[in-house]
Amino acid sequence: MRTGVFAATLGLMAGCNIFTIEDDIELGQQLRDEINADPETYPVVDRAAAPEAYAHLDRMLDAVLVSDEVAYRDEFAWEIYLIDDDEVLNAFAAPGGYIWMYTGLMRFLEREDDVVGVLGHEVAHAAERHSTNQLSKQYGVSVLLGVIFGSEPGLIPEIAASLTFLSFSRADEKDADDFSVKYLCQSDYAANGAATFFQRILEDQSIAIPEFISTHPSSETRVADINALSDELGCDNSASATAPPWADVLDSLP
After folding, report:
1. Which of 149, 179, 184, 248 has the greatest CB tally within 10 Å of its CB?
2. Looking at the domain assignment, is residue 1 inside a domain?
């Protein structure tokens, strides 16, 4: 076993993320290229084909990244892509700050604050490096290092597919929820925007639980915890006064 792989294995066993920031970015770039080059599985909308929709998404993502609570906000790529599928309520993030948002999720939500709340959650998964940690557990450190350094290129499609249904730990999910509140507490958006998404799920039992949210902790617990943290931090939970009408944002989608 190579010394680097041995040290990596020990680091993972100790609960540490042994991958460098450059590793996260490199892996994320490979996954980005794989996903964006597979229109049958991921009908990613070209930026030139929907400039107004991307302008809205970029604006929302930028509002999250203004927060000084975002780790690696200057190091990671922080790119967002729109997937044209109205039947899917999903969003997911790759290491290095690459994020995908489905049109179905945007149409399901009722205001921009809710979308930004979900974006904050996904930014946290990347910024806190939850994605790298989970992929390490799923595939093993040595395999993931092989992918990063090019000796296991055949695994990229499989890893890309796994991003859409990564099962994060209870601690990671709570971490992402908490950071979404902390990010948005410094913005013009409702700090508890992520909670309203879970509230919608609770109100409509016919909705299938989206892959991007784990069923643990429960939606009820997450709503209560998000609202409690927002109150504890003294955040504003009122809707953004500067966001454009949500109908205009939805009209810009493909």
Report:
1. 184
2. no
Query: What is d(CA 189, CA 181) in angstroms, rounded to the nearest whole number?
Result: 10
Closest CA to 190 of 228, 239, 223, 225: 239
Q: At residue 99, what is the residue type?
A: I
The CA R_g of the chain, rounded to the nearest whole Å, is 18
Q: Which two tokens stand for residue 200?
A: 């919608």
Number of folded domains in the chain?
Answer: 1
Given this model, what pLDDT does residue 148 score?
A: 87
| Beta strands across the sheet bearing 98-102 | 79-83, 98-102, 91-94
pLDDT in tens, 22-57: 999 999 999 999 999 999 999 999 999 999 999 999
Structure tokens at 160: 């890309």
Classify residue 96: in a domain, yes or no: yes
Residue 145 confidence (pLDDT) above 90: no
CA distance 191 to 235: 6
d(CA 194, CA 235): 14
In this prediction the pTM is: 0.90
* Residues of the domain holding 175: 21-251
